[in-house]
Amino acid sequence: MWSGPLDRRNLIRFGLFTPWIAAAMPLPLAARRSWVAQAGQSQGGTPGDTGAASAEASGWNRVFAQPRPVYRLEANAFLAQAVERMQREQLLRGKAALDIAMGDGRNALLLAEQGLEVTGLDISTVALDKARAKAAEKQLSLQALEQDLFTYDYGEEKWDLITLIYFNPAIRILDQLKAAVKPGGLLVIEGQGSEHTGDGPPPATRFRPNQLLQACADWRVLDYEDGRFACDWSQGSLTHVVRLMARKPTAGAK
User: Fold this and answer.
1) Measured between alpha carbons, how far is 156 from 83 in angstroms, rounded to an integer?
2) What confidence tens digit (pLDDT) does each residue in 204-217 have?
3) Does the pLDDT at position 112 exceed 70?
4) How far apart are CA 198 and CA 191, in angstroms?
5) Domains recognised in the chain with CATH numbers
C-alpha cells in the first residue's frame, strides 16, 4: 500500500489505475479517457495474486471513500424488477442469497429487505463498513465478508440466488458461479456490453453479444436484455448494457 495522493502516477505504479477507478476521480472526461487508455496498457497481476489483490483493495477503498459517489446509490433497477418477479411467480425455493462485489450494500440490502439471508462479498473494507452500517440502521441482517472474489470458495449448489451487478471481470469464473447455484436457483447479472466505450471495466470483460446467453444455454433464461440503457456506474448518457436472469434446471426438468 502507499500513502501518497490518489493520482495517475501512483495508481499506475501500483497497478491500480483501472477504468472504474478512473471514473471515480474528479477530472475532466477527456483526461479520464486518456488515463484509461494508459491504464489498459499498464495493468498487471492475475486473480489470486496476493499483492495485486491488496493493491486493488486499496484502490477500491479510495473509490468508496469519495464524498461524491459516481455510481447509482439506489438498488439496481433490473435486480429490483427481478426480485419482484421472483416473489410474484414464487421462483425462489430458499433464502440463501449471495451478492458478489457488493460495494456499499445497495443491492444486498434490497435482498435482505425481502427476507433473504444475504451474504455480500467485496474486497473493499470501506465499502463493507458502509454496508454494515446501513444494515444496522435498517435493522437488517447482512453477512458482509472481505474476500478476493477470484479465490473465494463459492461451494457447490449452495445458493438459491447469486447476483452479479457491475462486476464484469467475474465472467472468468461464471462456471464456478453456476455450479454454486442450487437446482432451481437463480442468477441475475447486469454489466457493460462490448460496445460500451470510455470508462468502465477492462474491455476484454465487457459482455459480447449473446455471450451470457451462450454461457447459460443449459439453463432457463427468464429475462435477457441487450441494448442501450442507463448504466449504474459512471452515470451519464445511455450506453451498451447487458442483463440476464436465468434459472438452474432441477433434476428431471425438461
Assistant:
1) 23
2) 999 999 999 999 99
3) yes
4) 14
5) 8-64 (no CATH), 77-247 (3.40.50.150)
